[in-house]
Write a structure and sequence with these properties.
The structure holds 2 protein chains of 2 kinds.
Chain A: E1 9-20, E2 23-35, E3 40-44, H1 51-58, E4 67-76, E5 79-80, H2 86-92, E6 97-100, H3 114-125, H4 130-143, H5 149-152, H6 162-174, E7 180-184, H7 192-209, E8 212-217, H8 220-226, E9 229-234, E10 237-243, H9 244-249, H10 254-261, E11 312-313, E12 319-320, E13 324-325, E14 330-331
Parallel strand pairs in A: 3-8, 3-9, 6-7, 7-8
Antiparallel strand pairs in A: 1-2, 1-4, 4-5, 9-10, 10-12, 11-12, 13-14
Helix pairs in contact in A: 3-4, 4-6
Chain B: H1 2-29, H2 44-53, H3 60-84, H4 104-139, H5 144-158, H6 161-175, H7 192-229, H8 232-239, H9 244-272, H10 276-281, H11 287-296, H12 300-328
Helix pairs in contact in B: 1-12, 4-5, 4-7, 4-9, 5-7, 6-7, 7-9, 8-9, 9-12, 11-12
Classes of the chains: A alpha/beta, B mainly alpha.
């Protein structure tokens, strides 16, 4: 990874496998990435591309069995999170790394008040007493823009709207001043106006609090508006990784290019049909021995069926996992 | 909540009156004659006069009205008199058993302690065992513990107490001679030795009945825990860094208890119904045995009163279950 600053989170060759009745499913295959302090890393990919599973593997949040984080290294604060004890891992979860989930309607416990759920991590990680935690909880709700915060601490989740609940989730994730915030499609379940509000809020909070953010989404529009760097995932692998301007201006991987073409344009004449990428992403029954995208790729050639491409550095902090060099329009040297 | 409770209590009055009518009419329709067990040497016209002396010559609506009057007016008066030493009842006619010619409520009050001790205790024991089994079974789904729990539940569901009761008598009373096979209701606990004996004679009936309760409640608990363990909020709690015990015992358990509490509350009336078969097997002369004997002797006032008291308890427990629902689940508000 180029650029100076020490990464706050450094993931190397992460491999996660699910044991199912039909055999193994290799959901995450050798994923590596580094997150620098204060940056916002966007992770895009279609459903089932391993975005969420990757992030949950980092913190051991996948139910095991069936999930098995088989290999790799997750360096955070000088420790490998895959090797630390459960107690150390719990101190990181919710303390130094906050997590916001996709569906705010079901992510909060319906039988406890919002204040109670917000104070739980404060009391556990920051060792606050009840009064201090209540004060901080109120500040947090104000921070995420919930009006009348003091009174709302005593309300239950069902008394909040979807957007407000997601704000509560964000407040919980931010409670202990995390170094990293992982947001797993936090706006997918919300309508567009609320989505815009949450995006604004996240940008504002990141600037105010200076934490690094990993933002998982399948919405390229959201990524373009918010991310510093983007990682495109396909079949459990990183297929392209670049600064956001570079990715949108100079996409290298055929999958990224196909994805960008699928964004409908509101300018110009209306297309008769929306562009799609033909075919389905593969279910990885084994560790990949060929390029997983080859069946849907328009530049695939013989080599793609025999070898899984490594990530080639193409300059400007940009790398892509493809044997075909889009710059020259020819295959790379073997 | 208070409004709701009062509204429900008021509404339960017509419900109970209707239930009383149905029970009365069913008993009216049922075959059986209180004189059926009298010696055949008693002439028919004497029997007829005896029937009339019991009030059976009156039309059904008169008898129903009298029963209602006695149940709701006279009996409470006697009850109040008994407590405060007043004289509201003033010698009014109480509900009298056809068989024993003694007040029905006195007999019930005599039998209630045995039933509460044995059946009530078995319910408490059963629930106390079932909850942890259900929780652990769900948390360690498909583990050896879970499989064993499933197996024991299956036995509890499928083996009737007239079999398991006799089986434990054969093993623990006949073969091993550890425990008495007959429950001695005249036994009084005065010191440590008599307390030990009381425990000994309670063990078998409580065990047999608790097995059934445990089987049922542990399955409900397990299913409810499993429903909740897969919920998103559980993942949130883990992502907040909560320990597993907090995740399970605080977050999951409270949600899982909501349906289980209803099941437990609705099971309470059946305690008072006594365990008819188990009480027979162990010779516990509780309410279940009383009801069976009353049915056999066509003792209409006794059957009617016990059955109606059960109906009252069922209506009451339904109300309590609904109120508990509102207490446990903040999404449910009644007002």
């Amino acid at each position: 990874m180029p650029d100076g600053a020490m990464p706050v989170l450094d993931v190397r060759d992460l491999k996660t496998v699910f044991q199912t009745r039909g055999g193994e499913v290799h959901a995450v295959n050798d994923v590596s990435f580094a997150l620098r302090p204060g940056e916002l890393l966007g992770v895009v990919g279609e459903s089932g591309s391993g975005k969420s599973v990757t992030m949950m593997s980092l913190l051991g949040l996948l139910p095991s069995p069936p999930a098995d984080v088989r290999d790799g290294q997750v360096m955070f604060g000088g420790k490998d999170l895959l090797k630390v004890s459960m107690d150390e891992l719990r101190a990181v979860r919710g303390g130094e790394i906050g997590f916001v989930f996709q569906d705010p309607m079901t992510s909060l416990n319906p039988v406890y008040t919002v204040g109670f759920q917000l104070m739980e991590p404060l009391r556990k990680h920051m060792g606050m007493n009840k009064r201090q935690a209540a004060k901080r909880a109120q500040e947090l709700l104000e921070l995420v823009g919930i009006p009348d915060a003091r009174r709302r601490l005593d309300d239950y989740p069902h008394q909040f709207s979807g957007g407000m609940r997601q704000r509560v989730m964000i407040a919980i994730a931010l409670a202990c001043d995390p170094k990293v915030l992982i947001a797993d499609e936090p706006t997918t379940a919300l309508d567009v106006t609320i989505q815009a509000q949450i995006l604004e809020l996240m940008k504002e909070l990141r600037d105010k609090l200076g934490m690094a953010v990993i933002w998982i989404t399948h919405d390229l529009g959201v990524i373009a508006g918010i991310a510093d760097r983007v990682m495109v995932m396909y079949a459990g692998q990183v297929v392209e990784h670049a600064p956001v301007k570079e990715l949108f201006g100079n996409p290298q991987h055929p999958y990224t290019r196909a994805l960008l073409k699928t964004i409908p344009s509101i300018a110009g004449e209306r297309a008769a049909r929306l562009t799609i990428i033909e075919g389905q992403p593969p279910i990885m029954g084994a560790a990949p021995s060929a390029c997983p995208f080859r069946d849907r790729c328009d530049v695939a050639f013989e080599r793609c069926a025999h070898e899984n491409p490594p990530r080639y550095d193409v300059g400007h902090g940009h790398d892509t996992a493809c044997f075909f060099d889009a710059r020259t329009g020819a295959p790379r040297d073997a | 909540m208070l409004n709701y409770t009062i509204r429900r209590l008021v509404l339960s009055i017509p419900t109970l009156l209707f239930i009383a009518l149905v029970i009365f009419l069913l008993l009216e329709l049922a075959p059986g004659d209180p004189m059926g067990q009298m010696p055949l040497t008693i002439p028919d016209d004497v029997k007829q006069r005896m029937r009339e002396a019991l009030g059976l010559g009156e039309p059904w609506y008169t008898r129903f009205y009298l029963w209602l009057y006695q149940f709701f007016i006279v009996e409470p008066q006697y009850w109040i008199d008994g407590i405060f030493g007043t004289n509201f009842a003033d010698g009014a006619q109480r509900i009298i058993s056809f068989q024993s010619r003694s007040p029905v409520f006195d007999t019930i009050a005599e039998r209630l302690p045995q039933t509460l001790w044995v059946v009530g205790m078995s319910y408490v024991v059963g629930v106390a065992i079932a909850l942890p089994i259900g929780i652990i079974s769900a948390y360690k789904q498909y583990s050896v513990f879970d499989q064993a729990g499933t197996f024991v539940s299956m036995i509890g569901f499928s083996v009737p107490p007239f079999f398991s009761g006799v089986l434990v008598i054969v093993i623990f009373s006949v073969q091993l001679g550890w425990l008495p096979s007959i429950y001695d209701t005249t036994h009084q606990v005065v010191d440590w030795e008599t307390f030990k004996f009381q425990l000994q004679q309670m063990i078998m009936p409580v065990m047999v009945l608790a097995l059934q309760t445990t089987a049922q409640v542990s399955r409900y608990m397990r299913a409810s825990m499993l429903d909740n363990l897969g919920q998103d909020y559980v993942r949130t709690a883990r992502a907040k860094g909560m320990s597993e015990s907090v995740v399970v015992m605080r977050h999951v358990l409270r949600n899982s208890m909501i349906p289980v509490v209803t099941v437990i509350a609705l099971g309470i009336p059946s305690i008072f119904g006594g365990a008819i078969i188990t009480e027979q097997v162990f010779k516990v002369n509780g309410l279940g045995q009383l009801l069976i004997l009353a049915l056999q002797g066509a003792d209409i006032p006794m059957v009617m009163t016990i059955t109606f008291l059960l109906a009252v308890l069922i209506v009451l427990m339904n109300l309590i279950a609904d109120i508990l629902y509102g207490v446990l689940d903040p999404r449910i508000r009644y007002d």
